[in-house]
Structure formats: structure tokens, C-alpha cells
TrEMBL record:
It comes from Streptomyces similanensis. InterPro entries: Aldolase_TIM, OMPdecase_AS, OMPdecase_type-2, OMPdeCOase_dom, RibuloseP-bd_barrel. This is Orotidine 5'-phosphate decarboxylase. Belongs to the OMP decarboxylase family. Type 2 subfamily. Coiled coil: none annotated.
Length: 281
């Protein structure tokens, strides 16, 4: 067991101190253009540095979307490494959105890439895909436990296509999304104040009262802003589990850049709406 405090405990404290908002670092080509930046490594670096400077000392979580860095090859990955290190040094928790998933030793290698404390891309948590079977994630669960990191497992994603997989039913009637939630509840059993193994559950999904969202872990909720959900939707979607929701906003904040004050203003407005919604929920 690592001496490092588990991710769930660190996240609970960050959410209580800073509010639960997670801002995405998603350097879309279209956003680079809107910010007056070139769609190249220099533009990527400037974009990412600006978001980290604007947000890392005030929001609980930053979530870089790995795909937008990977498309620039090794130089993009170098920018990602730097962004992760700077965001963590400034006090934000970093959830790497890389949605990794594979079997056995390959999954173990993915886990080492993001969850080993000596890895250049070491992050506080990683998004993972369980669609090779939840058990295929075991190497990542084990390494996360050792290093004090966390996972966010895709359970009920925010995109409309997700249902064809996630609503598929097992012979006993439980659907795939509910199965993932049940695995996570078992993973987090007995953990206080919050387990380190969370689910991705879209804020776009409407009433989820047929699901048991009480997994004793965080629920990363993308879909607010550009995908149409609003902070006011959170209590109706998540019910009593809203207290453990980490709402993610990427383009809804980023489109206000590159001005740092404007980015901060947009994030503060979302944070305030989220606070009000959670308090009322
Ligand atoms: O179900 C999911 C899982 C991940 N995402 C990711 O979150 C952000 C959302 O960006 P917005 O600009 O706020 O729409 C993006 O990185 C997605 O890949 C998701 O949207 N839904």
C-alpha cells in the first residue's frame, strides 16, 4: 500500500474546498482557430498552458483529452506531459481522459503509462473502457490502489450511441451500465470518505433513477455545455448521488478563451450554477 493518500479522499477534499467542477483541456482545431492560434504544436502548447494558468489554482479537477494531444505525435505528448505536471503542481487533480482498455499484460502496460508514480504521464486518475469485460481492468485497479490514483470507468456515457452497448441486458436482466456500477460499488466498499473508483455517467441522460448510482465513488459527468445538458439538470439526473458528481465542462468554458479572465469568469459561472443546483437537489 502506498503512503500516498487515495484519490477518492483527495478528490472529496478538493470538491469540498474548491467545488466539484472539472474543466476539460480539449484543444480542438476549431478552438485553436477561435483563439487565433495555429493548428500546430506551438498552438497546442499555448492553448494548454493558458487553460492550466487560468484554472489549475482554482478548480478541483482538470481533464486533458489525450486525443487532442496525441494527434501531434511525440511533440503533442510532450506538451501533455508538461500540462499534467504544471496542473498538478498548481493544485488541481488531473483526470487523464484517454479511455484505455485492453487485456492482461497490455492493460497492465496502459496502467503503467498513466498510473505508475514514475511515469511521465502519471495522473491522479484515468478514464478506462470496460468493454473487454470489467475484469480486464484488474491490472489498472491494482496499480491505482498501489499508487493512490483513481479510475473512471465508462458506465453510461453522454453520447446517444452509447445505449446500444450500455443498455444491453444480461440473461439475469441487469443491463451493462448497471453491471459496471455494481462492480464499482464492490470496488469501493468500506472506503471513506469516498472510494477511488468512479464511473463516467453523462449529464445528458435524463432520469437515471432506475440505476443504483450509489457506488461510494465519484461520478464524472460530461455533457454540460456543448452537448446540451445544464447544471440545473444534475439533481434530476443523479438524484441523491449528486453529492458525488464531478460535472465536466470543456467547450462550454474553453470557447471563452484565450483571455484568462474570461475563461475564469465562465468557469465561475458554471461553478456557481452547479453549487446552486447541488444545494437545491
Ligand atoms: O461519456 C463521455 C465520456 C467522455 N466525454 C469527454 O468529455 C469531454 C466533453 O467535452 P464538451 O466539450 O464539454 O462536450 C470530451 O473530452 C469528451 O471526449 C464525453 O463527452 N462523454
Amino acid at each position: 500500500m502506498s503512503a500516498r493518500e487515495p484519490f477518492g479522499a483527495r478528490l472529496r477534499r478538493a470538491m469540498d474546498e474548491r467545488g466539484p467542477l472539472c474543466v476539460g483541456i480539449d484543444p480542438h482545431a476549431s478552438l485553436l482557430a477561435e483563439w487565433g492560434l495555429n493548428d500546430d504544436v506551438a498552438g497546442l502548447e499555448r492553448f494548454s498552458r493558458t487553460v492550466v494558468e487560468a484554472m489549475a489554482d482554482r478548480v478541483a479537477v482538470l481533464k486533458p483529452q489525450s486525443a487532442f494531444f496525441e494527434r501531434f505525435g511525440s511533440r503533442g505528448t510532450a506538451v501533455l506531459e508538461k500540462s499534467v505536471a504544471e496542473a498538478r503542481a498548481a493544485g488541481a487533480l488531473v483526470v487523464m481522459d484517454a479511455k484505455r482498455g485492453d487485456i492482461g499484460s497490455t492493460m497492465a502496460a496502459y496502467a503503467e503509462s498513466f498510473l505508475h508514480e514514475d511515469a511521465p504521464l502519471f495522473s491522479d486518475a484515468l478514464t478506462v473502457s470496460p468493454y473487454l469485460g470489467y475484469g480486464s481492468l484488474r491490472p489498472a485497479v491494482e496499480l491505482a490502489r498501489e499508487s493512490g490514483a483513481g479510475l473512471f470507468v465508462l458506465a453510461l456515457t453522454s453520447n446517444p450511441e452509447g445505449g446500444e452497448v450500455q443498455h444491453a441486458r444480461r440473461p439475469d436482466g441487469l443491463d451493462v451500465g448497471a453491471t459496471m456500477l455494481a462492480h464499482l460499488a464492490a470496488e469501493n466498499a468500506g472506503e471513506r470518505p469516498l472510494g477511488s473508483f468512479g464511473a463516467v455517467v453523462g449529464a445528458t441522460l435524463g432520469d437515471l433513477s432506475s440505476y443504483d448510482l450509489d457506488v461510494n465513488g465519484p461520478l464524472l459527468a460530461p455533457g454540460i455545455g456543448a452537448q446540451g445538458a445544464t447544471p440545473a439538470d444534475l439533481p434530476a439526473v443523479f438524484g441523491a448521488a449528486v453529492r458525488n458528481v464531478v460535472p465536466n465542462v470543456s467547450r462550454g468554458v474553453l470557447r471563452h478563451g484565450p483571455d484568462v479572465a474570461a475563461l475564469r469568469g465562465a468557469a465561475e459561472r458554471f461553478a456557481e450554477e452547479i453549487r446552486a443546483a447541488v444545494a437545491a437537489g
